[in-house]
Design a protein that fits this description.
Helices cover 51% and strands 9% of the residues. By secondary structure, the protein is an alpha/beta fold.
């Protein structure tokens, strides 16, 4: 209780607290035996005596001549109240956060005295920073005397791009040691961090890491920190964490449907549940957001105070014109990709989401996009996942990918690199007057594919004989 600030609530079961306080009866007998058995460790026995006297003076429950069921209900009720009150200071209006906090605290293993590094990994907008900040505040306050220094470096990627790594190194040293240190260059900063912090027990959060160099210059190794230190890193890139050799990776997942509905209601109505006449529309928005907290918060805030008619209009507008604030956050991971990886991402977004992985790999290999390494990178950066044999991309990431292609030339679909909507395909083909495409897309009349400029691939589902379109078409294995 004294060392790590735990809350202790004793239950005096069929014993009077005063008997423990004065150590009478069976307590006196027990201590007489302990003093006989531990003659060489009498200080330890005295410490046990003092601990019991301390426990007896604490407020708790005296269970004597009372129904056990009643006292159990009282105990559970008060414990729940205390725990809820303690967490509410950090988690108010943060839907679904408590269970995630508990899992991350378990990963940190705060009871051990080794140096432990834990990564929080997930796609943009999933709540990594929020989770890290809540745990940082709780741990730094709960174990105030346990850590000699605490530091939360927010948005490492953004600060590094704007001001460089030296600024972050100075901030880290200042927050933990509470002293300004002039750092001339990055290597001097590394030397300072390693030598000034390796004998101290620290709590450090590196938020939004996107380059290995950032990790190497801010928290490059376990031995940089004193025993008992904890380092938490948030990133969209799992491979960075694996390269550093973190002790555990906590993958953040989206909200449940019930949590998503709750969060949307808080933002749109300031209530725990939507009004009855808004319930179905609320579910439609939750379905669109696909359990991504960032999207739900942005949409809920936008919808606050608006009429049902405006809600419906907003929902209809989202598909052709997604919310830019959402896409902007999601696009950060895309911008950092290699050119071949960008192409793989856009191909999946436009054509292959929910497709068989082996079929997609075969097509991407045909296009010389090196999918064996590219898909691995997209997975590490939380841009795709593999569900068994199926390749899966979050709906909003798919929308973002399609929006990138659309922005290539918003007014002239024929100048875009990829087409997937019937109206765009039909417009392009009709303008060239060499293909008449039926809306059912079940058949094509008199095609001359040589007249289609820059045709790289043609995806036709359900076509009986692709070679009948043009003899130069190479039919992939398994194509119909």
């Amino acid at each position: 209780m004294k060392e790590i600030k735990m809350m202790v609530l004793p239950i005096f079961y069929d014993v009077d607290p005063s008997t423990i306080q004065k150590q009478m009866g069976t307590f006196a007998q027990a201590f007489a035996k302990h003093e006989e058995n531990f003659k060489d460790y009498i200080e330890k026995v005295q410490a046990w005596r003092n601990a019991l006297r301390g426990v007896a003076s604490l407020k708790g429950w005296h269970v004597q001549d009372r129904p056990e069921s009643q006292i159990i209900q009282n105990i559970v009720g008060e414990l729940w109240h205390k725990l809820s009150y303690a967490l509410s200071e950090y988690t108010e209006n943060l839907v679904g956060i408590i269970s995630r906090v508990e899992k991350l605290e378990s990963c940190l293993d705060l009871g051990s005295n080794n140096v432990r590094m834990v990564g929080i990994w997930g796609m943009g907008g999933i709540g990594k920073t929020t989770l890290a900040r809540v745990v940082f505040r709780m741990v730094s306050n709960k174990f105030e005397d346990k850590f000699e220094g605490c530091c939360f470096l927010a948005n490492v990627r953004g600060v590094c791009e704007k001001d460089g790594l030296v600024r972050l190194q100075q901030q880290l040293i200042f927050q933990i040691l509470n002293e300004n240190m002039a750092v001339e260059d990055v290597n001097e900063g590394v030397f300072g961090i390693k030598n000034m912090l390796r004998h101290k027990k620290n709590l450090l959060v590196l938020d939004n890491i996107d380059q290995l160099n950032q990790l190497n210059k801010l928290a490059g190794n376990h031995i940089w920190f004193g025993l008992g230190s904890r380092v938490i890193m948030t990133t969209k890139d799992k491979h960075l964490l694996q390269t550093l050799g973190v002790d555990e990776i906590y993958e953040t997942n989206g909200l449940t449907h019930a949590e998503s509905l709750h969060l949307l209601s808080l933002k749109a109505f300031e209530k725990d549940h939507p009004p009855e006449d808004y319930l179905e529309l609320s579910r439609d928005f939750v379905y669109y957001a696909n359990d991504l907290p960032l999207a739900i918060e942005i949409l809920g805030s936008f919808l606050f105070g608006r009429s049902i008619h405006q809600w419906k209009s907003t929902l209809n507008r989202l598909k052709p014109f997604p919310e830019k604030d959402i896409l902007q956050v999601l696009r950060i991971s895309f911008e950092g990709l290699h050119e071949t990886e960008k192409e793989i991402f856009l191909n999946i977004a436009c054509f292959f989401n929910h497709g068989e992985k082996k079929d997609v790999v075969e097509i991407l290999n045909y296009l010389d996009l090196f999918p064996d390494v590219g898909l691995g990178v997209l997975f590490d950066k939380s841009l795709v996942k593999f569900w068994g044999r199926t390749l899966w991309m979050h709906d909003l990431l798919q929308e973002m990918g399609k929006n990138i292609v659309y922005e290539e030339c918003p007014k002239e679909s024929g100048k875009r690199g990829k087409l997937w909507l019937f109206k765009d395909i039909n417009n392009v083909l009709s303008e060239n007057t060499f293909i008449n495409l039926k809306k059912s897309l079940k058949w094509i009349e008199t095609p001359d594919l040589n007249k289609i400029p820059n045709l790289e691939k043609l995806v036709l589902k359900g076509c009986i004989n692709l070679r009948s379109l043009h003899p130069s078409i190479g039919v992939l294995k398994g194509a119909r």
